[in-house]
Write a structure and sequence with these properties.
The chain has helices spanning 12-20, 26-33, 37-46, 53-68, 75-102, 104-109, 111-129, 132-150, and strands at residues 158-165, 168-176, 179-184, 193-198, 214-220, 223-228. It has 229 residues and is α+β, with helices and mostly antiparallel strands. Residues 13-19 have low confidence and may be disordered.
């Protein structure tokens, strides 16, 4: 038996490549060039904070300011703001640490982007410590809150079912002995909270005799916040 001669114009090497289907070296090259986790981190940290990170920081700052504007706080906003803030702070610290080690010129070049997130955090913290969000929201809502007080039956607690008075949704209002108690819907971390308007000064940060388990904190003027313990 004799081997068949190749037909004219055919290439034995090309037939061998066609049978293989692909270059056997290609998978090895893909594995060799696949970036490691360390290289991915370095590449990520070498870029300055931008389109996603900085807006996320601003959003978390606004959530925390909103939480501080509620008497006694606001549980969903507190959880979202503190959780998101902790995550963003950890990401920023990791990113900055890597960038200072391997891409210091990039940090100097885009220094404004790098300091934007800490500035947002500092502004939110200063505003919250000074109670500016709460004072501003109460001041804006004061006239409508007093209007609710003037039109309320003074002999019982009136349910309002989330009716807006200024910038606050009210759950109920109670008037007793010259003291007006507004229960704000959604206010309070673990206990009901609200606003109080009193013509007479109230003791703050202590349990007041005759006021049950309420503790008051002064906001400004005749306005107080209260929390039921």
């Amino acid at each position: 038996m004799t081997a068949s001669a190749p037909t004219p114009g055919s290439n034995p090497a090309s037939r061998s490549d066609a049978r293989g289907g692909q270059d056997p070296v290609a998978p090895l090259l893909q594995i060799a060039h696949r970036p490691t986790l360390a290289r991915r981190l370095i590449s990520w940290a070498s870029r300055p904070p931008g389109r996603l990170y900085l807006p996320a920081c601003v959003l978390v700052g606004l959530v925390l300011i909103y939480e501080d504007s509620m008497p006694g706080g606001h549980l969903p906003a507190f959880v979202l703001g503190m959780g998101g803030g902790a995550l963003l702070a950890a990401m920023g610290a990791l990113r900055l640490g890597i960038a200072l080690s391997v891409a210091r010129p990039m940090v100097r070049r885009y220094w404004l982007r790098w300091i934007s997130a800490p500035l947002v955090a500092a502004v939110a913290i200063v505003l919250s410590m000074a109670d500016i969000p709460l004072q501003g929201r109460v001041s804006t809502s004061a006239d409508e809150l007093l209007n609710v007080r003037d039109t309320t039956n003074r002999s019982t607690t009136i349910p309002l079912n989330g009716e807006m008075a200024g910038l606050y949704p009210l759950k109920s209002v109670t008037i007793k002995d010259g003291l007006t108690l507004y229960t704000v819907q959604g206010a309070g971390l673990l206990s009901p909270s609200g606003l109080a308007y009193s013509a007479e000064p109230l003791e703050t940060d202590v349990f007041v005799r005759g006021h049950g388990g309420r503790v008051y904190e002064h906001i400004g003027g005749r306005w107080y916040s209260w929390t039921e313990y």
